[in-house]
Design brief:
This is NACHT domain-containing protein. The chain is an alpha/beta fold and 321 residues long. The protein is built from 14 helices and five strands. β3, α7 and β4 form a beta-alpha-beta unit.
């Protein structure tokens, strides 16, 4: 396991220190979407073994994936991998399967010794093809561990978030095809996969392949799930929190902000949670009066050297590149 650990991207775990304060769904938001994922993952009928959750940048995919991981952690979460273009290790799929195998060896009873045996017998397994690594480090040990258990097994869940942030577009498609191939080959395998990404062409094209589409379920983050209502709930909760704990709370009007202002922010968000969360981070800065920071957001006050949406700008510059 120590040898395997050296081939693992620990920062890709849902609870890694590298991802400290990772985005997750605010309480009372995304309830319908989270339930849809939960119902799918817990369903006994697994005709759809892969769920593809997709939406534009800033629509809250990673927050939903994180919340789902935390919901399943400790019971049926097999493994996670959170890709990120900001990290050299997490923007590559080089150690994707070893990272998944390591987590499954730790989280699934009886699987660790089987994975260790594979590594002990052949240290070169890490340099083999994706298909060989997946079969030898994940599928075969998982199936053997499951066969040794007497009780009926519920499905375990693997979550891959931000697949579009893997820097090799061809590998993105290869990963989807790899899982789909094994799921088709082993129809009773108690394993499911949640993939979250932007609807990039290379990913969309693979999901449109008949054999992949047949075992996949799509969850698009659009207006169907009424994001404006969730964003309003989030803003109201955060503004209430600011009024309770901000160091300059004595300077805040109890009625601040008005319903009209919250509605303006909801409209400006255009269904994208990242706009609302970026605005709140700027407004809640401990060094300034929240009301003045809100005026900057609304354009009622000159920003000066302030850059309230620098993070948002960089995100969309990347997606347009």
């Amino acid at each position: 396991i120590d040898i395997l650990s050296k081939k693992v991207v620990h920062g890709a775990f849902q609870d890694s220190n590298e991802r400290f304060d990772a985005p997750k769904c605010h309480p009372k938001t995304r309830i319908v979407i989270l339930k849809k994922i939960l119902d799918w993952a817990e369903a006994m009928d697994k005709s759809s073994r892969i769920m593809w959750m997709y939406g534009p940048a800033g629509s809250g995919k990673s927050a939903i994936a994180q919340t789902t991981a935390e919901t399943f952690d400790g019971r049926r979460l097999a493994a996670t991998f959170f890709f990120s273009r900001k990290s050299a290790d997490r923007s590559s799929a080089k150690h994707l399967l070893t990272t998944i195998a390591y987590q499954m060896a730790i989280s699934i009873p009886g699987m660790r010794s089987l994975v260790e045996q594979v590594v002990e017998n052949d240290h070169s397994v890490f340099s083999r093809s994706l298909e060989t690594q997946f079969r030898r480090l994940v599928i075969n040990p998982f199936m053997e561990a499951m066969s040794r258990r007497q009780e009926t097994m519920n499905s375990h869940l693997i979550i891959i978030d931000g697949l579009d942030e893997c820097r090799d577009a061809l590998v993105q498609g290869a990963i989807i095809k790899l899982f789909a191939s094994f799921f088709t080959q082993y129809e009773t395998l108690p394993l499911t996969l949640l993939i979250a990404s932007r609807p990039e062409r290379q990913i969309r094209d693979v999901f449109n392949i008949e054999d992949v589409n047949r075992i996949s379920l799509r969850l698009v983050l659009d207006d169907t799930y009424n994001p404006d209502s969730d964003i309003k709930e989030y803003l109201q909760s955060k503004f209430s929190e600011i009024k309770q704990i901000h160091p300059l709370k004595q300077h805040i009007d109890p009625k601040w902000p008005s319903e009209n202002i919250i509605s303006q922010l909801v409209r400006k968000s255009s269904g994208q949670f990242i706009y609302a969360s970026t605005a709140i981070k700027f407004i809640s800065s401990l060094k300034y009066r929240p009301s003045e920071r809100l005026d900057i957001i609304l354009g009622n006050k000159q920003a000066g050297d302030e850059t309230p949406f620098a993070h948002l700008d960089s995100l969309y510059m990347y997606t347009l590149a």
